[in-house]
Write a structure and sequence with these properties.
26% strand, SH3 type barrels, 9 helices, alpha+beta, Alpha-Beta Plaits, five-stranded antiparallel sheet, Arc Repressor Mutant, subunit A, 12 strands, elongated
């Protein structure tokens, strides 16, 4: 792909200083004419590439170019490699690019992290949906999809996808919803029957607000005892300072949580591995829900 070739030309020049067009062509396995077109593309993109004639001449980057690898610390190089690695599952980069960049930075091991945003149970479908959404954002094409709300009611939506957002262990699409005539953030896992429409839109005409986490509404302080079997999960989902390990192997958690329908389902998902101590109202609400659940299996 041309974008990978342009990327490699820049880093070859950073590494070598001056290279002839023919050397670039041989290294990239393309014609010299293709390399000259690529150099013109880089120049139009305001990358300071220039050529000199005669002995010792060739293609070079202007001294002091901001991506000069000499000014990058080892930590900054690792961060760049991590960024490229993170882009792999989104299709924003390839393993070939990562390998070439690792070679340039004299980093032999680029397999120290693997990122996959799809769910364990739905790998292929999640990747296909993500690719569809990514292409819609890049190509500025409208989307149609079904979307369930918290009450399970499904509405048909049409939206202009503006940005993909990863937050709180989940992917979202920030879009302008034509049904609501306002900006909305849709959780990708909830988007059903996603279709890309022929209609295009001008992204410059939209300015979505920053996506910021919403503070819990009607928060409460909970105190609960968890069994040892829940240890891995509570360390995943609570702050370490909220967790106390008890002498009998159980764990006491003191934390602030929202008081809404979600919190009931959250604690019920632990089954018999949790016992709520406080507040009393939450204990009573869970007792009633457990009773209702029991009736579902009494016949």
């Amino acid at each position: 792909m041309q974008i990978e070739r342009l990327f490699e030309i820049v880093y070859i020049l950073l590494d070598r200083g001056t290279v002839t067009a023919q050397e670039l062509a041989d290294k990239l396995h393309v014609s010299k004419r293709t390399v000259l077109r690529d150099i013109e593309t880089l120049t139009l993109a305001k990358v300071p590439v220039y050529t000199t004639r005669g002995k010792g001449g060739g293609v070079s980057l202007l001294d002091g170019y901001i991506l000069d690898k000499a000014v990058l610390s080892d930590e900054e190089r690792e961060q760049i490699l991590l960024g490229i690695k993170t882009l792999l599952p989104t299709g924003g980069a390839s393993g070939k690019t990562l390998s070439k960049l690792g070679s340039l930075f004299s980093v032999k091991n680029t397999d120290w992290i693997e990122v996959d945003f799809s769910r364990w149970s739905n790998h292929t479908h999640d990747r296909e949906k993500f690719d569809t959404l990514k292409n819609a954002v890049m190509q500025r094409k409208a989307l149609a999809f079904s979307y369930p709300n918290s009450a399970g009611e499904i509405s048909e939506r049409k939206a202009y996808p503006l940005k993909l957002v990863f937050q709180g262990q989940a992917w979202y699409v920030q879009a302008f919803c034509l049904l609501k005539r306002d900006y909305r953030t849709f959780k990708i896992n909830r988007m059903l029957d996603v279709r890309v429409l022929p209609e295009t839109f001008d992204a410059a005409a939209y300015a979505p607000p920053p996506v910021v986490p919403q503070p819990p509404q009607g928060g409460i302080h909970i105190r609960a005892i968890f069994t040892a079997a829940a240890a891995c999960r509570i360390y995943d989902e609570f702050n370490p300072e909220d967790i106390t390990k008890n002498g009998d192997g159980t764990f006491t958690v003191d934390a602030a949580m929202p008081l809404d329908e979600w919190v009931y389902g959250y604690f019920l998902s632990y089954g018999d591995n949790v016992r709520i101590l406080e507040p009393t109202a939450l204990r009573e609400a869970l007792r009633k829900k457990i009773g209702a659940m029991s009736k579902n299996y009494s016949e």
